[in-house]
């Protein structure tokens, strides 16, 4: 069956949490946090379903000081569904819907560790398709994480977005 990209509801929180738990690259937050994100930040989140099963999700928000930016907080696709373009499609759907709703997102932001090649390619592909330059700047350093030994998370900033249609639409 064709994958379905849709806006999440509060009830998706548990399935989204399961997707995160299947991705060791991500810091897992509580089930409560994902329910809240799916419900209260639904316009800046999407889930991807195949055969009625949630196989991917993205959650983000508009930073209060940059309300035309989408800060992508977490994006994940279950290993078995990777490489199908789902992550890119979910993010593009948020951008496209923001324009349709008259509150356009014109920049994408995300922090991505240097070694996360799939994630870097995801954002490079989005920049290409959305016709926007991509810049990387320091943001969260390794020191910010203290004794956790977490690698630095530089900020990727894409924009201004000029190609409103992205892939497919
Ligand atoms: C990053 C991630 C969300 C991409 O999901 P996806 O649905 O496979 O993404 P897409 O199919 O849209 O592919 C995005 C790009 O990554 C590339 N890619 C996919 N898997 C890859 C891998 N294992 N290694 C390198 N590149 C990879 C794709 O070829 C594509 O690049 P292209 O547009 O140049 O062809 C997924 O790999 C994932 O869930 N990783 C674990 C969680 C994570 O690290 N999230 C990001 C940090 S918040």
From TrEMBL:
Superkingdom as given in the UniProt entry: Bacteria
Top-tier EC class: transferase
Record Pfam families: Acetyltransf_1
GO biological process, one term: ectoine biosynthetic process
Gene3D superfamilies per the UniProt record, alphabetical: 3.40.630.30
Pathway: Amine and polyamine biosynthesis; ectoine biosynthesis; L-ectoine from L-aspartate 4-semialdehyde: step 2/3
Domain N-acetyltransferase: 3-153
PROSITE patterns (UniProt xref): GNAT
Key word Ubl conjugation present: no
EC annotation from Swiss-Prot or TrEMBL: 2.3.1.178
Signal peptide: none
Protein keywords: Acyltransferase, Transferase
A GO molecular function held by the record: diaminobutyrate acetyltransferase activity
Family listed: Belongs to the acetyltransferase family. EctA subfamily.
Protein's recorded name: L-2,4-diaminobutyric acid acetyltransferase
Source species of the chain: Desulfarculus baarsii (strain ATCC 33931 / DSM 2075 / LMG 7858 / VKM B-1802 / 2st14)
Gene designation: ectA
């Amino acid at each position: 069956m064709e994958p379905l990209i849709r806006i999440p509801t509060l009830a998706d929180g548990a399935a989204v949490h399961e997707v995160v738990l299947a991705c060791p690259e991500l810091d897992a937050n509580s089930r409560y946090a994902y329910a809240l994100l799916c419900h209260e930040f639904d316009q800046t989140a999407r889930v991807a379903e195949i055969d009625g099963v949630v196989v991917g999700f993205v959650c983000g928000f508009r930073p209060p000081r940059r309300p035309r930016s989408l800060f992508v907080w977490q994006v994940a696709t279950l290993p078995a569904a990777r490489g199908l373009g789902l992550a890119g499609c979910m993010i593009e759907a948020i951008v496209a819907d923001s324009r349709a709703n008259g509150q356009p997102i014109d920049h994408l932001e995300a922090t991505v560790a240097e070694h996360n090649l799939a994630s870097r390619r995801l954002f490079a592909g989005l920049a290409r398709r959305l016709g926007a330059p991509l810049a990387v700047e320091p943001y969260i350093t390794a020191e910010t994480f203290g004794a956790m030994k977490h690698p630095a998370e530089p900020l990727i900033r894409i924009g201004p977005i000029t190609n409103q249609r992205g892939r497919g639409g």
